Amino acid sequence: MQMEQKKVTVLGAGSWGTALALVLADNGHEVRLWSHSKEQAESINATKKNEKYLPEITLQDNLTAYSDLADSVRNITTIVVAVPTKAIREVLRKLVPCLYQPVTIVHVSKGIEPGTLKRISEMIEEEMPENVLEEVVVLSGPSHAEEVCLRHPTTVVVSSKNLEKAEEIQDLFMNQHFRVYTNPDVIGVEIGGALKNIIALAAGISDGLGYGDNVKAALITRGLAEIARLGTKLGANPLTFSGLTGIGDLIVTCTSVHSRNWRTGNMLGKGKKLNEILEEMGQAVEGVRTTEAAQQMATEYGVNMPITSSLYKVLFENVPPKYAVEKLMSRDKTHEMEDLVNILINE
Ligand SMILES: NC(=O)C1=CN([C@@H]2O[C@H](COP(=O)(O)OP(=O)(O)OC[C@H]3O[C@@H](n4cnc5c(N)ncnc54)[C@H](O)[C@@H]3O)[C@@H](O)[C@H]2O)C=CC1
Ligand SMILES: O=C(CO)COP(=O)(O)O
């Protein structure tokens, strides 16, 4: 089938922005990859490589890096935003004055804003005036950039209030290596994608402490229960959490050495200090800020999130990880089924 060729801009030349730009270029689109670093943009164009984030990968000729934001979005109607959650508002504030036509924003980041407790699509709707924002689409799911770039089979979900728009973005990205599903539940898709990073940090800690598969299975299963508890309270469809952006992303992030969240947790479990780890990583570790946000949400909405609360204490109150595990295991007894039924009927 002949694919319609489009012009697409990707904002953020980190690992995920670059990997998605590569998928779009594979599909024959004219891809502009914007970096806030002039040096990085020049290096990508000169070497066809993103040396800092994905040095092994050769980028295609129909992918060009830009460092001038206005140039990068000239005559463009589809923009993929791939910067860490903490940079989203800043980038959108720079973007809006560069736009002279309505655009569709595809956001691919995974986080919640501490303080405001906003999901990313809500932040985008707040920052972009209606005359330049046509629609917001979320792209999420189990997808490490390192494997997407190797064209390993990967499955993701696109979600929007506007199904037609979601299908348009599905067609834009979909190819034989990159399978894209749609799901109308924007809240569930964003909450699953953001909160799985909390559980991945906890899974990394568990591995760092030397625990095995029993703990990993417990964290994934009970982690999903608390994600679903909060998500349904916010209006998500509980079934979304059994899909790619729920359990799917939870599995990949809790078990992959590619995950920055898992690796951060792993080093914490081995006794390293959080600020040293984050400095060494030099990349987005979204789960740290999302733990802060989720802890605030749990309090605000009266939702029981024991793993999140324990991790919050480890990250922000210097509670030793081993002690946090002991505390988790010695909580009052409870019923599994009652909990699951409550999620389904959203009590
Ligand atoms: N790496 C992956 O495999 C995946 C990442 N994600 C999500 O994508 C988002 C981005 O993650 P990565 O690309 O992996 O992070 P990264 O750390 O590899 O790259 C982030 C990029 O954003 C840029 N950036 C940071 N602050 C900026 C600012 N204020 N203005 C402009 N640019 C700025 C950095 O220079 C860098 O190019 C995160 O929310 C992450 O959870 C989602 C799925 C997969
Ligand atoms: O979201 C991801 C995979 O789906 C990437 O996870 P990390 O941010 O932990 O690397």
Automatic annotation (TrEMBL):
Keyword NAD tagged: yes
EC number: 1.1.1.94
InterPro entries found in the cross-reference section: 6-PGluconate_DH-like_C_sf, 6PGD_dom2, G3P_DH_NAD-dep, G3P_DH_NAD-dep_C, G3P_DH_NAD-dep_N, NAD(P)-bd_dom_sf
Keywords associated with the record: Cytoplasm, Lipid biosynthesis, Lipid metabolism, NAD, NADP, Nucleotide-binding, Oxidoreductase, Phospholipid biosynthesis, Phospholipid metabolism
Coiled-coil annotated spans: none
Domain spans labelled Glycerol-3-phosphate dehydrogenase NAD-dependent N-terminal: 7-164
Glycerol-3-phosphate dehydrogenase NAD-dependent C-terminal domain sequence ranges: 185-325
Active site residues of this protein: 196
Entry keyword Nucleotide-binding: yes
Residues engaged in binding substrate: 110, 260-261
Stored Gene3D superfamilies: N-(1-d-carboxylethyl)-l-norvaline Dehydrogenase, domain 2, NAD(P)-binding Rossmann-like Domain
Positions annotated to bind NADPH: 15-16, 36, 53, 110, 145, 260, 286
Function noted in UniProt: Catalyzes the reduction of the glycolytic intermediate dihydroxyacetone phosphate (DHAP) to sn-glycerol 3-phosphate (G3P), the key precursor for phospholipid synthesis.
Family designation: Belongs to the NAD-dependent glycerol-3-phosphate dehydrogenase family.
PANTHER family listed in its UniProt record: GLYCEROL-3-PHOSPHATE DEHYDROGENASE, GLYCEROL-3-PHOSPHATE DEHYDROGENASE [NAD(+)] 2, CHLOROPLASTIC
Name of the protein in question: Glycerol-3-phosphate dehydrogenase [NAD(P)+]
